[in-house]
Amino acid sequence: MPYLTLDGLAKHFGEFTAVDGLSLSIEKGEFLSLLGPSGCGKTTTLQMVAGFVDPSRGRIVLDGRDITGLRPEKRGMGVVFQSYALFPHMTVAENVGFGLEMRKVPRAERDRRVAETLELVRLGSLGGRYPKALSGGQRQRVALARALVIKPAVLLLDEPMSNLDAKLREEMHIELRGIQKHLGITTVLVTHDQVEAMTMSDRVAVMHGGCIVQLGTPFDAYERPQSAFSSTFLGQTNAVAARVVATHDRCCEVALGGQAEGRRMFVPHEGQRYAGPVDVYLRPERIRLAAADEGVAGRVATRVFLGSHWMLDIDSAVGRLRVSQPNVGTVPPGEGMAVGLLWTDDDARLLHAEAADVR
After folding, report:
1. Of 29, 23, 34, 24, nearest in space to 208 by CA
2. CA 117 to CA 129: how far, in whole Å?
3. How far apart are CA 155 and CA 76, in angstroms?
4. Which fold has domain 4-229?
5. I need a surface site. Which of 156, 285, 326, 343 has the fewest CB within 10 A?
6. Cα separation of 22 and 45, whole Å?
7. DSSP string spanning 186-244?
8. Residue ranges covered by each domain of the chain
9. Among residues of the chain, what percentage have pLDDT more than 70?
């Protein structure tokens, strides 16, 4: 039986629909991310779960109990906001213990739980400091400790790392995931950062237009996108126009470029039905550079070094393609040089032709 269930959840603001009949089941101890661009409904969904926004329709069920009509403080949720919302006039320990004080927890127990939680987030020696004396990462950990100290049924994270620099954010991804696993706490994260979602989550729910358009493990969501939006939002990809010319047991024979005489590929259809215009999707890391007389002919338009890998834009016979090459200590062909591009049929994914709106 699911631990947290969102059943037909919807929210309308006048004529605008922010969330449109969303249903989702989350298991106890699971880490699930709501991933999507601004305006997709992910934050509104989290606010309805927390009790800060009333649903227009639908139910929220926690551990078999309908909590849709309960006030936020009666739901037992721990929330970490994007702004952290720390009290500047309180010390770290006072900030962390505030929720316990409001719940009338005896002083001795309150002090013990605050100390234990500060140790958990590696702030055991900083309880007497004020927020202004902390780094961004330390303030983020105080906000996390304040949410965890009340022993919530569910931990809700609303873009909690968006104010951190890239290196610290990466470190916090690993640290937060470790804490979540250690405690076994059911967690829902709202983020627009696909790396953040894939790094920490058991499952990712990709949202668009108030609906979930993809739900699965990070690997499945990345490798088997179910729409153009999912494919383009969850990582970089190349969409090559094509046309289905024949369907076989396990694959579709397609002509790249949309013309019957175009280069042929046999792309797995994974049991879906395709006909006419389609898009063939190729992740940049699945395309390999080769000699100019091999594979699809191309010419390097731009080349950028990103440390762990190189990113190249290549004008090819099937359109401009983005190619990611690992940094193995050698420099790939430079701008203006002719190259060949290789990939296998199994590297590609097939989707119905559609506009990839990533607003």
Report:
1. 34
2. 16
3. 9
4. Rossmann fold (3.40.50)
5. 326
6. 9
7. EEEEEES-HHHHHHH-SEEEEEETTEEEEEE-HHHHHHS-SSHHHHHHSS--EEEEEEE
8. 4-229, 236-283+345-359, 288-342
9. 97
Residue tagged 């990113």 (tokens): 311
Domains 236-283+345-359 and 288-342 fall in the same CATH topology = yes
Q: How many CB atoms lie within 10 A of CB 66?
A: 12
Domain 288-342 class in CATH: mainly beta
Q: Using CA of residue 110, residue 116, residue 117, residue 119, what is the dihedral sign?
A: positive
Residue labelled with tokens 């097939």: 350
Does residue 261 surpass a pLDDT of 80?
A: no
Which two tokens mark 247?
């369907």
Question: Residue 101 pLDDT more than 80?
Answer: yes
* Percent of the chain residues past pLDDT 90, beyond the cut: 80
Residues 245, 191: Cα–Cα separation, whole Å:
40
Q: How confident is the model at residue 227, as a pLDDT?
A: 86
CA-to-CA distance for 314 and 28, rounded, in angstroms? 46
Please give the C-alpha separations between residue 125 and each of 55, 66, 120, 129, 192, in angstroms, as whole numbers. 42, 41, 12, 9, 33
The strand pair at 186-191 and 31-35 is best described as parallel
CA 223 to chain centre: 14
Under CATH, which number does the domain 236-283+345-359 receive? 2.40.50
**Does the model's pTM come out above 0.85?**
yes
